Amino acid sequence: EPNKGPVEAARAALEAAVSELRSIHGTQTKDTASSSSYDLPVEGTSWKLMLESYTDNDPEAAEGHHMLEQKSPKRNGSGASATLKVFCRSFESMGTGMPCLSDMLQEAGQLGFDAIAFSESAEVAGQPLRVLGAHLTRSTDMWSSLRDLRFVLEPDEFQGRVSNFLGAIDFLYRADVPYHGPAHAADVMSTMEWFLQTPYVSSITNHMDHFMGLMAAAIHDVGHPGTNNMFQSKTLGPLALRYNDKSILEMMHVALAFETMLQNEATNWLELLPCDFQDSEDPAAKPANLQHYVRRGLIDMVLGTDMAKHAKKLARLQDIAQEEERGRMENVCNRPLDRTANFGQDQKKQESLERKLFVLGTALHASDISTPCKPRQLMLRWTERVLLEFWAQGDEELRLQLPISPLCDRSLDAVSVFHCCLLFVCSFVFYVFFVFLNLVCFLLPLVFLYLLY
Known about the structure:
Elements (H helix, E strand, L loop, with lengths): L5 H20 L21 H6 L6 H4 L16 H9 L13 H5 L9 H6 L7 H12 L2 H7 L6 H18 L9 H16 L1 H6 L2 H13 L9 H6 L3 H6 L4 H15 L27 H14 L6 H20 L17 H22 L7 H24 L14 H27 L3 H9 L1
Helix pairs in contact: 7-9, 7-10, 10-12, 10-18, 12-16, 12-18, 15-16, 16-18, 17-20
Enzyme class: hydrolase
EC number: 3.1.4.-
Family: Belongs to the cyclic nucleotide phosphodiesterase family.
């Protein structure tokens, strides 16, 4: 509603969505009139009591807690281990065994996809991106579409090289990094597929854009060391020196991906893209170099995952959403971008191209921070992993006598950790999802956020 601020408008939209779900499914949700999803817990509130609601009416999820004292050293008391004991429920007792691979892949491209279980499956054999990529491209008939539209002239060879490339990327993700490892890449790849399938995004992109989005998701954190950009800068690490403190890890991820691709012909799918692509739906357009287009798109999307760019990205996304809303209110055909005008040279087509690449980059950014929008059990497992990774960085900062980065102090009590997590959700995750999902007219992830927080 135009006269409401973003928080009030978001709350109204969420309450309407939750009310609709209650009427359809008869689900019991918290009283929206007396509880605000934006309020922080009051001082002195028991951390355990706050988290008990996550396992109410869910006996399997409520069984046991993770015992993590042996995983990480204690510091300044037992705050960290106590936090995770009550925050991270034991999921090992859920069910009698691991779901089969085919069952897990049925959820790929959906918000409920369990990338952790998928990546740990023996059938995946340590190559989640290769397996997931093969499934997503096959389920969308991508190879035939790329061939028919002449985006790719040797589809069989192209498909084989893409598979080899994803397998190589799999092994460049560090298995010893708790959060930013291969499972996270698979989760982002699946979530990116979900965004690409929304009516708005699919209406402004073509099959090559779709493929490019999946590849960007696969490579977006490759080689992540388990420490963030702030740590790289504070320690004057080699990556910080190489990239001059600008989007340090993001620069490294995309550079490593292209180095891996180009060092071996078996992984170099980029060279099979035409340098003189002619759009059959726009014969007047000049031939385009798809190799340059895809390289530029991958670079833009991966660099756009830098959280330092979040505020500017959100502001531009709000402008686009407002333009779309004005178009809908004026009953104008909702066609903000001409999907056939990807490679032209005139100003209008160039603006459309820039806007499309921005939307794709924002979809990847949203996918990258989407774990709070996942179903409860998945959200808790991802939270456990990210806390372990952050605390390990804080331990190293303490050892080096450096200031401890935000969210990295394991000595904080559980309520403080909850405050920090909730602040991140409210400050970053909620707003980008509210604006983006208002654009694509789909509020399910926000309903998850409302029910969880």
